[in-house]
Amino acid sequence: MNLYVIDDHPLMREAVVMLMRRLRPGANVVELERMGGLDAAVRQHGAPDLICLDLKLPDTTGTSGVHEIKNLFPNTPLAVLSASPAADCEELCVDAGADIYVEKSAGAGEIGNALRALLAADGQFEELAPTDNKLSKRQKQLIVMLDRGLSNREIADELGISEHTVKVHLWRLFRRLGVKSRTQTIHYARVHGLLGS
After folding, report:
1. Are 90 and 114 in contact (CB under 8 A)?
2. Within 10 Å of residue 55's Cβ, how many Cβ atoms?
3. What is the spatial distance between Cα 145 and Cα 157, in angstroms, rounded to a whole number?
4. At 149, is the secondary structure helix, strand, or coil?
């Protein structure tokens, strides 16, 4: 398994690399300080199974790094770790293709939980046709909560899990149903009878 960490801040990069090694002992963790080294790294180590990307790098602007990675590796889980507040950048990053957005200030525990959930989603996720309604109990719960209009924070409080874990569960649900948003999920659920009348 190849896990890529792209961050120009040496201390932060080392911390994320240590987290990755703890979460996936034996995985090949590839460290890069800018997007420019990605092609050479992929030739040397192979395609990434998960990428952790710092939003602000010397050779990126805005969400250009997210777009570049998703163009190269559309099916690879991508976690954006950023010093910028989620309120400022999360939506832009997710719209650009990031799977989750985690503020660096969240701390090692929260970042670790988010990455662990993303790694668990990767590999154990069977691609199902969008019409296949084999959803887990948790996924059915999420659909009902989305229909109730609950925010990620409210879902996290109700389920007793972190907000980052909620984001990963939603990411898995969206992929399972072949949708990209909460609204599409609710529409899909209504059309396919996943919500009570």
Report:
1. no
2. 22
3. 12
4. coil
Q: In what order do the strands lie in the sheet with 2-6?
A: 28-32, 2-6, 50-54, 78-82, 100-103
C-alpha distances out from residue 148 to 132, 144, 186, Å: 23, 6, 10
In this structure, are residues 68 and 37 in contact, taking their beta carbons and an 8 Å threshold? no
Closest by CA to 104, choosing from 122, 89, 118, is 89
Tell me the C-alpha distance between 177 and 55, whole Å: 28
CA angle 168, 181, 99 (to 5 degrees): 35
Q: What is the pLDDT along the chain (197 residues), one digit of tens a residue?
A: 999 999 999 999 999 999 999 999 999 999 999 999 999 999 999 999 999 999 999 999 999 999 999 999 988 999 999 998 888 888 888 888 888 888 888 888 888 888 887 877 544 333 434 444 577 788 888 999 999 999 988 998 998 877 877 887 887 788 788 887 888 899 999 998 888 65
